[in-house]
Specification:
Elements: E1 4-8, H1 12-24, E2 28-32, H2 35-44, E3 50-54, H3 64-70, E4 76-80, H4 85-92, E5 98-101, H5 105-120, E6 125-129, H6 133-145, E7 149-153, H7 156-165, E8 169-175, H8 183-193, E9 200-205, H9 211-218, E10 223-226, H10 231-256, H11 266-283, E11 287-294, H12 297-304, H13 306-323, E12 328-333, E13 336-342, H14 346-362, E14 365-367, E15 370-372, E16 376-382, H15 388-404, E17 410-412
Parallel strand pairs: 1-2, 1-3, 3-4, 4-5, 6-7, 6-8, 8-9, 9-10, 16-17
Antiparallel strand pairs: 11-13, 11-16, 12-13, 14-15
């Protein structure tokens, strides 16, 4: 569903820039250039995801348009060329997302970030921990204004339960003074199980003693806020910490993912496969490790070009996700892939691999006006007690035999070809 952005702006050049920014993020833009036009639009349509509102309009010079938009429950970013302390306080007294002074081009870069956050923040869950319902509700209201998913807890003990219950929590905002388990004790407990790359923690306190910020940080918190805090500072610190987590996640994803197919790369496959094999062996779960190779792939690249070759690799990855959704799949390099599967028994696992091989053999992709087909050779090891590197070597040897015996077949390591 396309999200609609209401742009309230009487300057045509500025409205054009905002529209371009919004459209680049996928928003559908509706423009109002005066309070009268705004009221007319809202009389017939209030289904806006967000709004940008100019503080001063020709027929509303003192922020009247802000109250108008907010009265319809539309989250709003205020754009203002007038930036004195009185105006700032007047804006912040209202439940706006943010305000942005129209000072230079940086203002529009910041606006793009804010509009992007509104779209993505629902994927960022935050746990608010405070025994004071009024303080807790205030923070929750600020976070929901920015479209975060929010959970609450009354104390540290309950917070640990919530973390176990909701695996998508990326940040904990915790008060210091709480019964049963205070904020510093909670921070300590959380850091036993969650690294800074997995979970951000922000401590808050109304105590006058300045040492609490240092105590929070030394016990594993990422940041600290003193109550009562300014909403601007609150949002800046929340956003900064969430962005850091998301940047780390992107870096880790890039480091562990094959850029072309979006499957795991060799490094990630070895790490996760080792962990799974240990678990399978402990639970006596049947499993297999298979090496897959596209037959005559060099010929595909030579005849059709590397763009078509890349398309073949991507399509194979799609089929692997479809057939092995519960398994671990990876592109090891070039046209070589790997999969680790578990199941009821070796026959079931073999049949999964063979169904996959057969479906690939009858599939085709467009290539230069023609339909291109390709096949796979597979080498597989079942329930080996060897180390992963040895299993990979055995599966690779079986794969080589499959190639030597005519390709488009499965060979089991240490056995004759399985029909």
């Amino acid at each position: 569903m396309v999200q609609k952005l209401l742009v309230v702006e009487d300057s045509k050049p500025i409205a054009t820039v905002i529209k371009q920014i919004a459209q680049s993020l996928g928003y559908e833009v509706v423009l109002a250039t005066s309070l009268a036009e705004l009221e007319e639009i809202l009389s017939g349509d209030t289904g806006f995801f967000a709004a940008t509102v100019d503080y001063a309009l020709p027929d509303a010079n003192d922020g009247e348009a802000i109250a108008c938009v907010l009265s319809h429950g539309i989250p709003s970013v205020v754009m203002t060329g007038k930036m004195d302390d009185e105006t700032r306080q007047k804006i912040l007294a209202q439940p706006v997302i943010d305000y942005i002074p129209k000072e230079n081009s940086q203002a529009f870069l910041y606006l793009k970030r804010v509009l992007h956050w509104q779209q993505t923040n629902e994927n960022n869950a935050i746990l608010v921990v405070d025994d004071s319902s009024s303080a807790r509700n205030h923070i929750v209201e600020l976070l929901k204004r920015r479209n975060f998913t929010v959970f609450v807890a009354n104390n540290g003990v309950q917070a640990l339960e919530r973390i176990q219950q909701y695996k998508n929590i990326k940040m904990v905002i915790t008060d210091l003074e709480m019964p049963e388990m205070n904020g510093i004790e909670l921070t300590n407990e959380l850091r036993k199980n969650y690294t800074r790359e997995q979970l951000a923690i922000i401590g808050i306190s109304g105590a006058e003693n300045g040492i609490h910020s240092a105590r929070f940080i030394k016990n594993g918190a990422d940041d600290f806020l003193r109550k009562p805090f300014c909403p601007e500072e609150f949002y800046c610190r929340i956003t900064q910490n969430i962005e850091s987590l998301n940047n780390i996640a992107q870096i880790q994803h890039a480091a562990n993912t094959d850029y072309l197919t979006e499957l795991s790369n060799r490094r990630a496959f070895f790490r996760h496969a080792n962990q799974r094999i240990v678990e399978y062996s402990k639970r006596k779960v049947p499993y297999c490790l298979a090496m897959l190779d596209i037959d005559y792939f060099k010929k595909v690249n030579d005849e059709y070009g590397h763009d078509v070759g890349d398309q073949v690799l991507k399509i194979l990855a799609l089929y692997m996700r479809k057939h092995f959704s519960s398994g671990l799949t990876a592109r090891l390099g070039g046209e070589e892939f790997a999969v680790l599967l578990h199941g009821l028994d070796s026959d079931q696992l073999y049949n999964k691999l063979d169904d996959f091989r057969r479906e690939i053999g009858v599939s085709s992709i467009p290539a230069g006006g023609n339909q291109l087909s390709f096949t796979l050779s597979i080498g597989v090891v079942f329930d080996s007690t060897e180390e992963l590197s040895k299993q990979m070597s055995e599966a690779d040897s079986a794969l080589y035999i499959a190639k030597e015996q005519g390709r488009n077949q499965i060979v089991i390591s240490g056995a004759e070809e399985h029909e």
